[in-house]
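Researcher: Quick test of sequence recovery. Tokens follow.
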């Protein structure tokens, strides 16, 4: 039987970890990657037992320079023909940009932008040659915004993911390869604490969605070949809001919402 293989980056927690059983239930063999390999191995063992699929684990720090290439080499050594790529791994850095740790900014940009871009570049030629493939990139509602004072570099990195996804989707029309971008709003995952987001008014006032609901929306979207998926009714409205409010107003609202609660 012709097996299909999916790669999920950032599969050790949150949205990526919730996507893994959905793809396993569909019948995909999985290559799971992140830094915390013991978590990945436990997930891989559970999914193998539950769904009879093959699940492999690759430990990789994607915030390192040239990680996209290193990860591709490790993936290709397991299975070079990838049918579905989920670029989910990402982190946030919050606070006044001039006070954020330079090393944390560098690592975030490597992970959120360079790593996923280069991994996609390595995976795509095989998909195009086989005339079949699906890519799911995880951006954010933040990607639609004109800017995020208080999380400026993170917001900009997610605008990149949204723009990049739309651009390559159009380039790939007619090739059999579809690109879907998932744009979640606040979601209950480890991101809340690692990005310092739970201290913001935005996370305090909004009701974060569960990671499973968000993953399910992404799963359905990538299977349908949708262009952009925004999970949740309120988030759908918020994704449209920059079209109707001047950038200066949106920036003031974002500055207020992204400020840490005193
Ligand atoms: N939660 C939200 O409110 C929210 C909203 C919009 C968009 N998003 C986006 O959703 C995506 C998934 O995040 P999440 O909310 O599920 O957060 P999460 O629970 O913190 O998951 C992040 C994943 O990325 C991996 N990761 C972090 N740093 C890494 C590195 N240097 N190298 C390799 N993998 C790394 C983590 O694994 P290890 O630590 O094991 O490496 C983990 O598996 C991110 O792109 C995030 O920007 C989240």
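Model:
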């Amino acid at each position: 039987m012709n097996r299909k293989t999916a790669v999920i980056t950032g599969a050790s927690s949150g949205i990526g970890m919730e996507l893994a059983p959905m793809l396993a239930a569909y019948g995909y063999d999985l290559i799971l990657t992140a830094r915390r390999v013991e978590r990945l191995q436990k997930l891989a063992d559970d999914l193998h037992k539950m769904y009879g699929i093959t699940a492999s684990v690759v430990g990789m720090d994607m915030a390192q320079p040239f990680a996209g290439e290193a990860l591709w080499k490790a993936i290709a050594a397991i299975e070079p023909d990838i049918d579905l790529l989920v670029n989910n791994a990402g982190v946030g850095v919050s606070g006044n940009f001039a006070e954020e740790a330079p090393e944390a900014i560098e690592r975030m940009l490597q992970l959120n932008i360079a790593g996923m871009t280069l991994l996609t570049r390595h995976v795509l030629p095989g998909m195009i040659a086989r005339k079949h493939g699906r890519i799911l990139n995880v951006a954010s509602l933040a990607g639609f915004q004109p800017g995020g004072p208080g999380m400026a570099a993170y917001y900009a990195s997610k605008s990149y993911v949204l723009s990049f996804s739309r651009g390559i989707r159009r380039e790939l029309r007619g090739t059999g390869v579809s690109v879907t971008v998932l744009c979640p709003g606040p979601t209950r995952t480890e991101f809340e604490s690692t990005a310092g987001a739970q201290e913001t008014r935005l996370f305090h006032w909004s009701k974060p969605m569960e990671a499973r609901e968000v993953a399910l929306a992404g799963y359905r979207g990538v299977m349908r070949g949708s262009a952009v998926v925004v999970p949740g009714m309120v988030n759908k409205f918020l994704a449209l809001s920059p079209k109707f409010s001047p950038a200066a107003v949106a920036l003031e609202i974002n500055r207020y919402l992204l400020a840490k609660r005193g």
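The chain is about 50% helix and 15% strand.
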